[in-house]
Amino acid sequence: MQMSRADEFDYSVVLDVGSSLDWGIATPSYYGYNGSNELVLSWIPLPSPPPGKCLIEVGGLTQRWNNEGLNDGPACLTIDDHIIPISVKRWFKALVSEAINRPHIRQYVDAKRLSESPATALIICHPYIVGDQVSVDLTPLIKSHDSFKPEFEWPRPGARWPFRAMIEEIIAEGIHLVAKHPCYWSMSFVMCEKLLVDCIDSNGTCRKKGQRIMKKLREMWCPKGTKQELASYHLKNILFWECENHPYDSEWDNDKLSERIGSMCYRIIEHIRCGNLPLYFHTGVNLLENKDRDILCQVVQNIQMFLSSPEQNLL
After folding, report:
1. 36-56 pLDDT, tens digit each
2. pTM summary value
3. 179 within 8 A of 89, measured Cβ to Cβ
4. How far apart (Å, rounded) are the C-alpha atoms in residues 81 and 63?
5. What is the C-alpha separation between 257 and 239, in angstroms, rounded?
6. Strand partners, 186
7. Predicted local confidence at residue 21, as pLDDT
8. How many CA atoms lie less than 13 Å away from 32 in the CB half-sphere?
9. Are 143 and 176 within 8 A, CB to CB?
10. Integer distance in angstroms from the first to the last C-alpha of the chain?
């Protein structure tokens, strides 16, 4: 299989809120959408956040923002003392759009419309780009360094991967927040995932190579225009689960690469069939929730076709 150049890049843009945050599910939040689809104060509190979501408060910081004019008009990010995810998302998108709307930039860069993703997506086209264009996702992230909770079911007792020192480093990094859902903040494990990936082949194994091959195969499996139904993030979590279930470096020698690829393929099929791919760091979050079942069934069929003659596709 010929590997192409990378054409997708993800960056986290850390937002400095200048204060410690309180987040959880205990404090009621009185805001929601009105008939004009505007976010307003409400007499009815929001329901408790679903798994992987939370609410955050900034306490007295709101008053300081108001006094300094940092929370006015389109830049207003709060209702009462709560920072509103959709407001942060829209504000960040406006800042990015303003930055790229310059004569020497705008002819090459296009900012896509907001979606369910927490990222502002940019498509960059330039004569010097090999492969015509690249996609860049910029995700505003609030560093909160919060602790892992027992309900996350990580780290798992008895697991032999990752090693103890890495587990302690990940726990010390903690959990951060991104604006994905309009009203609830989504817990982000992106920094934890980066720690894992950065050292994943420290002993000369083929884990990253396996992930690159899976990404390339995904382009074959997903019908045109539907790659978001089986995204790169799904494959990253599949890799993590595969590493935990096959924790020894000897299982990731280069001569075992085809075996690991096949195992990850069957893992994808299994999760799609049961309709649940748990987030590696928080098993209460289903990464297949709200995905198109018909498209995923087609993906399963395509994976099965690949598995019937994998050698032809891995040449």
Report:
1. 667 778 888 888 899 999 888
2. 0.88
3. yes
4. 9
5. 13
6. 53, 178
7. 61
8. 11
9. yes
10. 5
